[in-house]
Structures are given as C-alpha cells and as structure tokens.
C-alpha cells in the first residue's frame, strides 16, 4: 500500500516536472523571439517590426467582438420580430378587416420624407425655433394630423393632405 502511494507520488512529480519543462521551453522560445525583435529595433536592420504576440492578442480580441456583435444582432432581430408581430397583430386583427387605415400614396410619402429631411437639417444646424417664438400658429387639426400615423382616412383624404402641407409649410418658414 505504501509502495503504491509512493509510485503515485512519483508519477505526480514526474507529470509536474514535464509540465514545468514544457512551460520553460515556451518561455525560452518567447524570450528568443523578443530578443531577436529587440535586436532588430536597436540595430535598425529591418524596416518593419512585427509583434506576433500583439497580433495574436488582437485577433483573439476581434474574434470576441465579432461573437458579441453576432449575439447582439440575434437579440435585436428577435426583438424586432416580436415588435413586428405585435404591430401587425394590433393593426391587422385576425378577423380580417382594418379599421379606418389606408396606406398613404407615394405623393404623401414624398411630402413626409421631404418634411422629415428638412426638419432634421434644421435641427442639426441649430436653426430649430418654436412656432410661438417665430409668431406662427399651428391649428389643432394640423397638430393632431402630425401626431397620428401617416395613414390617411379615405373620407377626408384631400383635406388632410392640404392640412398636412400647410403644417409643413408653416414649420419650414
């Protein structure tokens, strides 16, 4: 029994010695590489110096960042899918009809996108002023039209478009 214990201890010591020899060889190799690079730097023999360890570490870091970005993309895609499903469930109920909502025409979308682009341009330039400060008045209907969805009602579509244009012109002046 004591002999078995001693053989196991001997084997453990030999394994540990083997690991230490391997680690020593790795450090010697690294020392030689770094010494060689330091000689190149000090002598100026080679115009380009390559830090192999730095490149390996940077590669590991970039791979980690790619994994994180892919995980974030998957989480964002699942959240977007949930939001889309909820949006369509609210807008298009399962019984098959839509309540007072129609898609805006291309002309309406063009006005909306132009308005938003000009509004963003004014915001970035710092030229955004309040309508009260500039002496302009916005009607309640114009305000309500701006706050609602860009979907327009069939019954009063032309009046809504006129009101929207007036609102856009008022804000742009």
Automatic annotation (TrEMBL):
InterPro entries: CC149
PANTHER family according to UniProt: COILED-COIL DOMAIN-CONTAINING PROTEIN 149
Keyword check for Coiled coil: yes
Coiled-coil stretches noted in the UniProt entry, renumbered to this chain: 3-86
Originating organism: Stegodyphus mimosarum (African social velvet spider)
Short name of any one Pfam family annotated for the protein: CC149
Family: Belongs to the CCDC149 family.
Protein name per its UniProtKB record: Coiled-coil domain-containing protein 149
Keywords: Coiled coil
């Amino acid at each position: 029994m004591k002999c078995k214990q001693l053989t196991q201890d001997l084997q453990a010591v030999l394994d540990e010695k083997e690991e230490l020899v391997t680690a020593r060889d790795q450090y010697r190799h690294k020392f030689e590489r770094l010494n060689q690079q330091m000689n190149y730097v000090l002598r100026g023999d080679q115009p380009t110096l390559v830090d192999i360890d730095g490149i390996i570490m940077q590669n590991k870091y970039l791979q980690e960042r790619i994994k994180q970005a892919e995980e974030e993309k998957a989480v964002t895609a699942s959240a977007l899918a949930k939001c889309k499903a909820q949006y369509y469930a609210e807008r298009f109920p399962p019984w098959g009809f839509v309540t007072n909502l129609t898609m805006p025409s291309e002309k309406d979308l063009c006005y909306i996108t132009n308005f938003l682009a000009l509004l963003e341009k004014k915001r970035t330039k710092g030229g955004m002023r309040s309508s009260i400060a500039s002496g302009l008045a916005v009607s309640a209907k114009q305000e309500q039209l701006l706050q609602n969805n860009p979907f327009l009602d069939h019954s009063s579509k032309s009046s809504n478009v006129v009101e929207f244009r007036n609102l856009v012109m008022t804000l742009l002046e």
